[in-house]
Amino acid sequence: MADAGQVPQRLRVTVAVCTEPGAVREWCGDMPAGAQLVDALRLAGCDVTALDSVGIWGKAAPLTQVLRDGDRVETYRALRVDPKVARRERFVSQGARSAGLFVRKPVPKR
């Protein structure tokens, strides 16, 4: 068993690529210690120049970020619609009485 302070020779990394809405392709593999985020993306077959943004475990990270054992590299697509605008549009289309705080909820019987 390795010491807590010892750096592993190989890193186990997962790369998750969002190819289209609702579709994610995952690749798991070993990389040498000291590998960067861009190295993992290239090894997984991603076109690095076409990516909107990338991160590790849901947090944005630069392509030069050095990876650690167990990291999950993720690619993110740009949002097509601002979430606040989409919520307002849903509220308008559903009507004020059937959405949000104005919904009449049944009172639980005791």
UniProtKB/TrEMBL annotation:
Xref: InterPro entries: Mopterin_synth/thiamin_S_b, RnfH, RnfH_sf
Highest taxon of the lineage: Bacteria
Species of the source: Simplicispira hankyongi
A Pfam family: Ub-RnfH
SUPFAM superfamilies named among the record's database cross-references: MoaD/ThiS
HAMAP family: UPF0125_RnfH
Name listed for the protein in its UniProt record: UPF0125 protein D3F03_03145
Family, per entry: Belongs to the UPF0125 (RnfH) family.
